[in-house]
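PROTOCOL LOG
Step 1. Enter all chains and additional molecules of the complex.
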Amino acid sequence: MLGPRLEGRNGVALVPPTLEHFRLHPAWEVQPEASRFMGPRFGELTPEKQEKRFKDTADGQTQIQWTIAYAGEPVGFTGIFHIDWVRRDGETGLFIGRHDLYGRGIASEAVRLRTGFAWRELRLRRVHNWVALANRGSRRANEKVGYRRMGLLPRSYFRSGEWYDEWLGEAFANTFPTDDLTARLDVPQRGSGDESQHAGE
Amino acid sequence: MALGGTIRGKKTTLRLPVAADLARFNDWMADLRVRRAHPPWFEPAMPATWKERFAEIAKEPRRVLWSIESDGRLVGLAVGRVWDSGVGLEVRQLVIDPSEWRRGYGADAALALHRYAFDYLDLRRTDLVLHADNVAALRIAERLGYAEYARGRDVYYRDGAYVDQVQLVMDKETWQERWGATEREYASFAPEAFR
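Step 2. Run joint prediction.
Step 3. Record the structure below.
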């Protein structure tokens, strides 16, 4: 599934991905700056494969994905994957492809929007993920919205002569910050006379 | 998923699965005793659906399916997934027919499968995920050399209650310390063989 538009703070929004967005992914994923804790920087990175990935993502009933937009430009992607609709559990992930924009809080805002959506709209009860322990920014982004450490896989990544551990986190609706959970989208109420206003949070 | 070849244990043999095994696989996936112990591998389905699944299985290069037999009887199945990096194996399923439980088949098949992973494939680690109340599987894992590295809270729901998830890992070094001297795929060649 492609996620709906979620307007965030500081110029960040989650928007439904397009094929043009998916075509940006390979160029992002092969950059050393962006892939330190990702894959091997090779793969079937062809336009045809991206078209198939886009179609599969749109058709998939156990995942929901967004493009992360910053100041109106696509800069990465995030989603909830392997959703088990019986257990109401899903695995979350996020990738910022534009490494020149690191440090601006884009990931934190994207994680906040995604996690709030999981509780408010999907009615999930648990989300979980894996983050390199050394990737402090990503870990903090998750912790801020309620992810808590459930374990640590030692020596999970080998990069530049060193082993890195992996942090495993999980979050539940009741660990989401209260102010974020109560700050709902300002959708006009029937009969309130302000049906034309669809302001964000 | 690829179809796995022969791995011999003492009581069990992991062998190439065949279409004739599918009806039993379906029975196990429909058995609440199996489903209480493991997340199901696939949901129960019509024979035609299982045939389609089986045809797909052979195409996936990193997932491997074995049937497990003992004395010529089909008693279980195992599914492993080689990590994308190629250095590890996740044991996804190791299902024993409930009517064959408490005969040591699970422990024997698990030992043989891990010997194959470390002593034949030369993998660096193996990992698996269990229900926290699957005492029998946890005991087998602990004996093999697995160590818990994560515990997910209230991950599974069945029988009207949630149960935690335990994630475990074993390194090749642990395997070698514990089993390397006794569990080998092949006996060493005599020195004359190299002359």
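Step 4. Note key features.
The helical segments of chain A are 19-29, 47-59, 106-120, 136-144, 178-182.
The interface with chain B takes residues 39-40, 86-87, 89, 126, 128, 150-155, 168, 170, 172 of chain A (CB under 8 Å).
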